Amino acid sequence: MEIEKRRRNVAKKLSKEERKAMARKAMEDRAKHPNESKGSGFAKLDEDAKKLH
């Protein structure tokens, strides 16, 4: 709960341009380093369940 309040306060302190710049940088980083998909959520759960048994 406390962390959420801090995040909101930080977000309020940033200007609109700063927020846009941060979002743009995050999108560029995701484009450069995409997460490798290892299957859908349920397929992953099924695979993990088989490992446990």
Description of the structure:
The protein is an all-alpha fold and 53 residues long. The protein has 3 helices and no strands. It has helices at residues 2-13, 16-32, 41-52. The N and C termini lie far apart (37 Å).
In a nutshell, what does this entry contain?
The protein is mainly alpha-helical.
Q: Topology of this protein?
A:
Layout: H1 2-13, H2 16-32, H3 41-52
Computed Rg = 18 Å
Beta strand count: 0
What is the overall number of helices? 3
Helix/strand/pairing class, anyone? mainly alpha
- The end-to-end span amounts to 37 Å
Report the oligomer.
Answer: single chain
Shape: elongated
- What is the H/E order? HHH
Strand content: under 5%
List the uncertain runs. none
Helix content class: over 70%
Give the biggest sheet. none
Mean pLDDT: 82
Label this structure with key terms.
mainly alpha; 53 residues
